[in-house]
C-alpha cells in the first residue's frame, strides 16, 4: 500500500487541468483544491512509469464480486481505448446538453441507451495508463485550446469534474472508451426523476443483470445483503 500526499498530487495536477476547471467545476472559478476532482484525467502524467494500469473508484461503493474480475475488463479494451467507464444512469447530460440538443434535433447526444449517448459516470474507472501515455489523441484533448473548442461546440458547462470531461470527449471520440456494463457501476441516485425528467428517467436508470458493484451516489442508501 502506498499513500500519496494530496497536496503533492494537486501541485502536479494543477498545470494540466487548470484550463478544464472553469468548464467542469461547481465553483465559479478555478480553485487549486478542485484539481483533485480531475485526478483520473491526468493520472498517466503523475504516476510512475512502472504503474501501467489503475482502477480508480469512489468511496460510496459496495462490492458484490471480486475486484479481480473488474481488472480483467482491461483485456476487453479495443485498440485505441484508454479508459474503461460505465454510462451515466440519470438524464443529467440530457439536461446539460440541452442547447446543443435543441440546435441538433437528430443528435444522439444525451439520449438514453442502448442507442443514445447518455454520458459517463466516473464512480468506477479503469485507467490504462500506458495507453493514455501513448495516445496522441487523448493527450491532444487535454490541451486548453481543445477543451475550449469542444465546450464551445457543445455549449457545455458542467460541475462534475473528470466525469464531465470524459463525457464531452466521449461524444466526439467514443473510440477512446471501453464501456463497462451497468452492473459494474449500478448507480442508485434518482435525483433527476423528481427534477423534471420523470417521463424519461427509467430509460436511463434500468440495468439488467446481476449487480457487481452498487454505487450509492448522492447519498443514496445501498441495499443490504
Automatic annotation (TrEMBL):
SUPFAM superfamilies according to UniProt: Nucleotide-diphospho-sugar transferases
Record Gene3D superfamilies: Spore Coat Polysaccharide Biosynthesis Protein SpsA, Chain A (3.90.550.10)
Protein name, per record: Xyloside xylosyltransferase 1
Any single GO CC term annotated in Swiss-Prot or TrEMBL for this entry: endoplasmic reticulum membrane
Source organism per UniProt: Struthio camelus australis
GO annotation terms (biological process): protein O-linked glycosylation via N-acetyl-galactosamine
GO molecular function terms attached to this record: xylosyl alpha-1,3-xylosyltransferase activity
Keywords of this entry: Transferase
Superkingdom as given in the UniProt entry: Eukaryota
Amino acid at each position: 500500500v502506498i499513500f500519496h500526499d494530496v497536496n503533492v498530487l494537486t501541485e502536479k495536477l494543477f498545470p494540466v487541468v487548470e484550463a478544464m476547471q472553469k468548464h467542469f467545476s461547481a465553483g465559479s472559478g478555478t480553485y487549486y483544491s478542485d484539481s483533485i476532482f480531475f485526478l483520473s484525467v491526468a493520472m498517466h502524467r503523475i504516476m510512475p512509469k512502472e504503474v501501467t494500469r489503475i482502477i480508480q473508484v469512489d468511496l460510496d461503493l459496495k462490492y458484490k464480486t471480486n475486484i479481480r474480475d473488474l481488472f480483467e475488463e482491461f483485456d476487453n479494451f479495443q485498440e485505441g481505448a484508454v479508459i474503461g467507464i460505465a454510462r451515466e444512469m440519470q438524464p443529467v447530460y440530457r439536461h446539460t446538453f440541452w442547447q446543443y440538443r435543441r440546435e441538433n434535433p437528430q443528435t444522439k447526444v444525451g439520449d438514453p441507451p442502448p442507442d443514445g449517448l447518455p454520458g459517463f459516470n466516473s464512480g468506477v474507472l479503469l485507467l490504462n495508463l500506458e495507453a493514455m501515455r501513448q495516445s496522441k489523441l487523448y493527450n491532444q484533448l487535454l490541451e486548453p485550446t481543445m477543451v475550449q473548442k469542444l465546450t464551445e461546440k457543445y455549449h457545455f458547462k458542467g460541475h462534475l469534474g473528470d466525469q464531465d470531461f470524459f463525457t464531452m470527449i466521449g461524444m466526439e471520440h467514443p473510440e477512446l472508451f471501453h464501456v463497462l456494463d451497468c452492473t459494474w457501476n449500478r448507480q442508485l441516485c434518482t435525483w433527476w426523476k423528481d427534477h423534471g425528467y420523470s417521463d424519461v428517467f427509467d430509460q436511463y436508470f434500468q440495468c439488467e443483470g446481476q449487480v457487481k458493484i452498487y454505487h450509492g451516489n448522492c447519498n443514496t442508501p445501498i441495499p443490504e445483503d
